[in-house]
Amino acid sequence: MDVNWLDANYLAWLIPVPPLISFMLIILFTGRNKVLSHSIAVGSVVLSFLMAFGVFLKATGTDDFGFHETTLRIFGDDITWMDVGLSEFKMGVAVDPLTAVMLFMVPIAMLMIFIYSVGYMGAYPDDDPHKIRYSRFFAYLSLFAGGMLTLVVADNLLLLFMGWEIMGLCSYLLIGFLFEKKSAQQAAVKAFMTTRVADVLMLVGIGYLYAEAGTLKFHEIFFANNAEIIERLGNADQTGYIGLSAASIIGLLLVIGTIGKSAQFPLHAWLPDAMEGPTPVSAMIHAAAMVSAGVYAVIRVFPLLEAGGNPHHAEYTAPLILMGVIGSITALGAAILGVGQNDIKRVLAYSTISQLGFMVAALGIGAYVAAAFHLITHAFFKALLFMSSGAVIHAMEHGEHAAEHGHGHDEHGHDEHHTHDEHAHGHGSYTWADLNAKIEHGIEAGHLQPGERTPYGTDYVGPNGELPDDAEWKTSIPQGLKPDFVAKPNNIALMGGLRHKIPVTAYAMLAGSASLVGFPLITAGFWSKDEIIADAMTFITNSGQFEGHSPWLHMLVFFSLVIAATFTAFYTTRMWLLTFWGKPRSAMAEHATLMNHVDPEELAKAQTSTKKFWLQYSNSALMQGPLVVLAFFAIFAGFVGIHGDFPVLEWFTGSHNFFHEFVGASLLHEPATVPFKIWPVLVSVLAFSIGAGFAYVKYGVPRDSYEKDPVQNMVGDPVWQALKDRFGFDTLYLATFYRGFEWFGRVFSYRKVDKETIDGILETVAVVFNNIGEAIKRFNHVIIDGVGDGIPQLIGLSGRWFRNLQSGRVQQYLLFTAVMLLAIGLFFVLRVL
Amino acid sequence: MEITWQTIAFAAFAVMTLGGGLMVVISRNLWHSALFLMLSLFGTSGLFVLLVAPFLAAVQVLVYIGAIAILVLFAIMLTRRMMGLEETQNTQWPAAAAVALVLFLILFVTVSPLVDEQWFKDIFGGDEKDSLGQRISRLNADLPVDTDERDENGELKVKPNDQLNFVTVEAIGEALVTRDGFVLPFELASILLTAALIGAIVVAREDEA
Amino acid sequence: MVPLWFYLVVSAALFAIGAYGALARRNAIAIVMSVELMLNAANINLVAFWRYLNPFEINGQIFAAFVFIVAAAEAAVGLALIISIYRSRQTVIVEDVNMLKW
After folding, report:
1. pLDDT 10s digits, A242-259
2. Given CB atoms, is C87 within the 8 Å cutoff of chain A?
């Protein structure tokens, strides 16, 4: 067998391999050596990056790459995986234009995340769990990268699903990385279980597709000479059930998989909690990998989703409607929720959910290229934003440390003339130890209620609104790890003025934020968001082509996305201003720095100035270097996808939309470019200006941490509380799905049911009614209390019954399974199918 | 069906396999269970011989009886305090028996030539297109390559030499190491075995601390 | 010549016996033995189908060989787990190992 391994066809095989090998090496052999471990991990990603970049260059250099008229020109190779009876199942890799651009984005983002991780994890003190499990972190990260790259190069749905599941496992491991914290454990389980629900349905969809089409290879189903397959699948008369075509049913199931993976409503609740993981993980999950994978998968199977309809003529198929509606709801809802968050990572988490909603909605109206474009640009700027937030948090933690020990960093030239009292404003000293003592005291004395906002502008309760179990965290949490209710260094209410402390991060994050809000003309986010809005709007205004169909989905998507974009501009600007603008609002912000903890003696011993610099700034450089690289892409990555006829710029583009033409070739019928109109551009500029301008007016002025948030003043406390409680979804899910079984399994407790469940429902209802005011809220109390006796009893009964199923005896479980299987077997034997 | 040495041998091996298997699950003494397991495995090996798979028969004896069954014996010895339990079956055994019985009946109906009987067709619609009965008869119709079948001259259609050389050990070995064959599954299987063995050692060894 | 379905019935019976053992025996080692019986039943099936349907192809035998490998791995890990449990809890009765519950 003669194989030229530099051939792009074979190179594609090798791209996911180095990180997977790196995972094994680190787990099996090099776990004890931190430097070796991270070198292997970073090295493996560099290898993957080089190969992927080679393939990308080869792809862009190939004429007519992709699908054109009659030729299918892609890279790929496969082997026989299984001989099943007469059919053989082939497993392989394929690189088409869509894969090629992913191969450009994913390895770059990953490489930056890996380098950043070296600095981020290394900056923790030695007794911190981050540092204790340092090597393991890089092993998981490598496995994650391997899973993502597998998913990208996969040429069939099964291999894609394997990569998908590897990432699911890794996200569980990484979110729960600090497993001493109860909240991290819970967040990990939550993420795993939520995505599992969706994954099972997706697997059913894959199975159905295999049963109908006889193959899972994308290019056998969608292209090649098999146009009839997709036609047959899309025809409701020939295939499928209950009036839906097979393609629709499969599409719905696959889209549900994406809803779970990409955290779309109503399965979005896991993502904000996933912030419990170390920050590079958040960047990995939210940018380069997992959530992108969800959108990537639906983009991949788009021909299946639109089979039997044509979104450009407002003939929507069921999966498209599902995507359009869910995407719109998610984009808008998450953007609104982003306004109410004070945790910097949670703001970004909601913005991620919202932006993914943009992509899903765009796909729902058939804006294939626009969704892919936004996927790429979003990955760059969201990775940048998350990594910047990690740097900010680090700087704040460092400042907290300095403030607690009552000294600044004299040796670094920081002066200490800002005393804590300057910021106290009658509330006493602001060190974290004091604050904790106050909060604990307040709770003991009954002055504070869990979930209540303290006058110190801090959140001291866990993500689910509960206080951690006192006895447990005191004994089990090692030194260096703070319990949940300590005011977090993540809190933007306590930041301010950080642009003087960490300028590189500040301006890199400014670039990322500008891209996220779609700062006109010069940022990547503007071009991609604009393309989605343009696609939605053009088809509304140009309704002649709809032949009597109502473009309601286009309208829904258009209006929700424009409003969502306004909110995005608002909360992003708010976040950046609160973090970096004004003056420091706490002692920890006062002392924030990214420099290493260096022993002065060691520093004195350092011979050369280079060595001195490295001793002080190694982590700072490792963290901020990648930010600069990503900031470059966050700004310039958009220029590949400018509309060909954009005024003035058309001289540079030569009337070509490069991205559109390249990626569009991934489809059998290249999607038509929408004609250029000035209105969509004006609408996006307007959305940006209103949101950002308003935020600047409200937050551009210096303020103190104990002041109420301007938004809180504007909308009133109930709405603000509802925003902070995320519209009660988490409480509701917690109360219904989780607590329902857990609590009643143990002991039937009326008080808890009343408090948690009823309050959960109440809060959801309250969100709907909150603008009507307090009177109606009381009215709700009466109604809910009326049914209050019935619901707990019902839940109690079901809980007691379900408890018997969970006996802990495996053979009983096996018996249930066997009976179930037999029931299915009998169905096939007895029923004449 | 005429009685040939093949049918006799089949009956003997089947009795060995099934009787041994039955004793494995109902014997009160775990040690006896393990010995009956060996008997059952040996019976299976005999069935392999009848099916002209000498390589598999040998592997069956070597791997199953020589390794796995011995491993089980060791495990029993290491936990010998648990050997003479008063209660060998748990409380759900009637349900388990029912499940096993129904399972067997489903499988039996599916594989046996009952489908050609009229009463079976009456119940399961054997004449309708795509009925279960039809499908099973189709399956049974093109089943055996009858090695006893003779052509008009009374010669065996399949030469005895061919029968014994359907698949040689050599061919199996070659298939396991060629790209067009099964080299990838083979490598994966070897990784699986290695991982399982390392895992077993790690799990079973006593903690040093 | 013994017809194919004889083998299939033997295999089905052996599988059912194994299933019964896995569901009803209390001793974990007995359960492992029952699982081995079920794997054997599958193997008889595979080899029988190979012999009767496609005796000149190699796939059937290879498949059975892989079942051997998996069975060996399963037995090794399973018994290691049992010994580990026995060491920590002084029992191999599965009903007594029921901590994984509410």
Report:
1. 677 888 888 888 898 888
2. no
